[in-house]
Amino acid sequence: MKERVQDTRINAIYARQSVDKADSISIESQIDFCKYELKGAEFREYRDKGYSGKNIDRPQFRQLLRDINDGLIERVVVYKLDRISRSILDFTNMMELFRKHDVEFVSSTEKFDTSTPMGRAMLNICIVFAQLERETIQTRVTDTFYSRCTRGLRMGGKAPYGYRTEQFTLDGIRTKRLVAQPDEAEQIQRMFEIYSDPESSYGDIMQTFSGMGGLGDKRVCPSLLARMLRNPVYVRADLPVFEFFKNCGAVIANDADDFSGTNGCYLYRGRDNNPEGIDDINGQLLVLAPHEGLVPSDLWLSCRHKLMNNVTIRSERKPKNTWLAGKIKCGHCGYALLSMANPSDIRYFRCSKRANSRNCPGCGKLLVTEFETIIYKKMVSKLKKFQKSPGKSVGTLLAEKLRMISEYIDNWAEAGFEEKRNAADALISRIYATEGKLKITWNL
């Protein structure tokens, strides 16, 4: 019976090509080499084009492994060892699978015999060097990237708002540089001017630009503003900017004398650092760019310091799981309701007093998603009633606030977490809830 099963097994040829380049051997040529090794025997082809050998996430390779597990394959033939794997761990696991199913492995150009200890040892040595080659290539690519960065070459991507790109030659290398768009540049300056006021917030910027039609095709939201106000691409970098980034631990590619108050900057993630937050600059690479900045350094720095101070103050109480956090209380005891998850990852509210084994019957069954929907509908209703009969005359500040809330409410499905929280903050003071009772204290 065993002989009959083995007789039904076939040869497999596996070929892989990550990119189609003039100096890389094509899949068709690989298969021709492997067919010569089989000397006319029947075979099944497995081809992966456009896939790296650094891991096994390749569709045809996974199919080959499935066929081996099903007992369909007798021998696997490849043009060269690195066509099938460049990872020591993946290769070791693969060879263990081959041994388990009595599958022979053949490299048509390297002539390995996996039936002997010496052959297996040589095979392992070769896979070590294959992985070394891959890692060396990765290092070389990284070195080239950072070499281009430090020279001020633009590394691709869409131009930030306020600029367009144009062809440019720097040190004999063709690249692109940023060129200011006058109308957009004025909006960028206005944005920084608004936020530099100690009493202002993202909401003030959003109110201003919502009335102006936004920022081109960008919807003005807190996450967008957080990125734009921190981006040194806009600053006219002078010595105080140099000192700011130096004190924050950035790696600065240019000398202090080069910071003349004209050029903007590029900020790249450092080679070996993993930033802990949006304001973690330590180890990042700052490079003077060949374009002109849009915002005076004193204005840019005042906004940057304000952002860093705001994050420090808010970091310990930032909500994560519901935009109602901090507002919703137990209808029995008045303690905070916490957002928790069951084993099925369904979130629900639980009374913090009851959770700590204190004397409270709890809030009952309140699912977070369902309860948020209820509160959203209550907010819509409240806003409509207030707009129909506001009572006394509405002042300018309150009118701006209502316009901001209305924008959030009207675009609720697309609104982000912070936008929903801002709307709730503006409308609601407190929510007292149980499964059968709801009381909302409104700000309006």
| CATH architecture call of the largest domain | Alpha-Beta Complex
Give the H and E element order.
Answer: HEHEHEHEHEEHHHHEEEHEEEHHHHEE
Q: How many helices does DSSP assign?
A: 14
Count of discrete domains: 3
Strand content: 15-25%
Low-confidence stretches: 1-6, 311-317
Instruction: Give the CATH class of the largest domain.
Output: Alpha Beta
Instruction: Give me the secondary-structure category.
Output: alpha/beta
Protein described:
This protein has 444 residues and is an alpha/beta fold. The chain folds into three domains: 2-139, Rossmann fold, CATH 3.40.50; 163-315, Hect, E3 ligase catalytic domain fold; 328-442, no CATH class. The protein contains 14 helices and 14 strands. It has a four-stranded parallel sheet, with helices on both faces. Helix 2 (27-38) links the parallel strand 1 (10-17) and strand 2 (43-49). Helix 7 (202-210) crosses helix 13 (396-410). The longest helix has 34 residues, at 117-150. Mean pLDDT is 80; it is low at 1-6 and 311-317.
What would a concise description of this structure say?
The protein is an alpha/beta fold and about 450 residues long. The protein contains 14 helices and 14 strands.
Task: Lay out the secondary structure.
Blueprint: H1 2-7, E1 10-17, H2 27-38, E2 43-49, H3 59-69, E3 73-78, H4 88-100, E4 104-107, H5 117-150, E5 163-170, E6 173-180, H6 182-196, H7 202-210, H8 222-230, H9 239-247, E7 251-252, E8 263-268, E9 285-292, H10 297-314, E10 328-330, E11 337-341, E12 347-351, H11 352-355, H12 368-388, H13 396-410, H14 417-427, E13 428-434, E14 437-442
Parallel strand pairs: 1-2, 1-3, 3-4, 7-9, 10-13
Antiparallel strand pairs: 5-6, 8-9, 11-12, 13-14
Helix pairs in contact: 6-10, 7-13, 13-14
